[in-house]
TrEMBL record:
Protein name, per record: ABC transporter substrate-binding protein
UniProt key word Signal: yes
Organism: Nocardia thailandica
Keywords: Signal
SMART domains associated with the record: PBPb
CDD domains for this protein: PBP2_MidA_like (cd01004)
Length: 301
């Protein structure tokens, strides 16, 4: 996510098979979810005044093409039926409903989402992307959630995120944790004459989680909702390491100056004001990151 700038199916099967002899059922993290009951969709209705502001291209096609990267539970992932689901998905579906169109989700590697938005391949990017000032140079963002960073550790093997020099730390590749947070902590270690953090980057968040479960790393760093979900799914095999920190907004990416930004923001604000947004966050257990106001380009750093 991000925070993921955050979030890959070939490796998950080989990893799960490799550890089946040493892990009990539920110990290996998959990128699908066939254990929990389906999360109900919250009904919405079209708001014509907001829908009228849609760009002609979107209105005429009747769809918003959304670039998304999976898996990144609980925000976006494939369920047992192969459908892309999650908190982000339900929220974008609801926004599309307010705008009188449908969301068409197109899977992409994470690092190609913003270039795809810039090139017009996607109308928007939705993948737990942290709205940062650096990214705002490339695209505009409509903020929809507030996420922090949360580390995890194995029980009885404590790791201090602020004193992790020399530790092995798993992250998902291309996330903020991978590109900014852990490298900055590692550089501070080196500057203090201590060993750097041994960062291990994985293509999938499930790979990072499994590495921690198996003891291949000492800790992992991910967006707060992602870590909370991983802790829940591993049933006590990992636990939080320190508090949530460095909270920042998630944003939907659109092309710089895109006329789609304003109706997306207004539709989301409508959902916030009517309570639908909060209901969706509660459905997925991520209400701690709920926002009260959506803005365009709300980066804090």
């Amino acid at each position: 996510m991000g925070a993921r700038p955050a979030r890959r199916a070939r490796s998950r099967w080989s990893l799960c098979l490799a550890v089946v002899a040493v892990l009990a059922v539920g110990g290996c993290v998959d990128n699908t979810d066939d254990e929990d009951p389906p999360v109900p969709k919250v009904p919405v209705t079209v708001v014509p005044d907001i829908a009228a502001a849609l760009p002609d291209s979107v209105r005429s096609s009747g769809r918003i093409v959304v670039g998304v990267n999976v898996p990144y539970q609980p925000n976006e992932y494939r369920n047992a039926k192969g459908q892309i689901v999650g908190f982000d998905v339900d929220l974008v579906d609801a926004v599309a409903g307010v705008l009188g169109v449908r969301a068409q989700f197109v899977e992409s590697s994470f690092e190609k989402i913003i270039p795809g938005v810039q090139a017009g391949t996607y109308d928007m990017g939705m993948s737990s992307i942290t709205d940062s000032r650096e990214r705002e140079k490339q695209v505009d963002f409509v903020t929809y959630f507030n996420a922090g960073i949360q580390w995890a550790q194995r029980p009885d093997e404590p790791v201090d995120p602020e004193n992790a020099c020399g530790k092995r730390v798993a992250v998902q590749s291309t996330t903020v944790e991978h590109t900014e947070e852990v490298p900055a902590k590692s550089a501070a270690c080196v500057a203090a004459g201590r060993p750097p953090i041994d960062m291990k980057a994985f293509d999938e968040q499930s790979g990072a989680t499994n590495a921690l479960v198996l003891g291949q790393v000492d800790a992992m760093s991910a967006d707060s909702p992602v870590t909370a979900y991983a802790i829940k799914r591993t049933e006590g095999r990992i636990e939080p390491a320190g508090p949530v920190f460095e909270s920042a907004p998630y944003g939907w990416a659109v092309a710089k100056g895109s006329p789609l930004a304003r109706p997306l923001q207004q539709a989301l604000q409508h959902l916030i004001d009517t309570g639908v947004y909060l209901q969706i966050t509660r459905n997925w257990g991520v209400q701690d990151g709920a926002i009260s106001t959506s803005v365009i380009n709300g980066a804090v750093s």
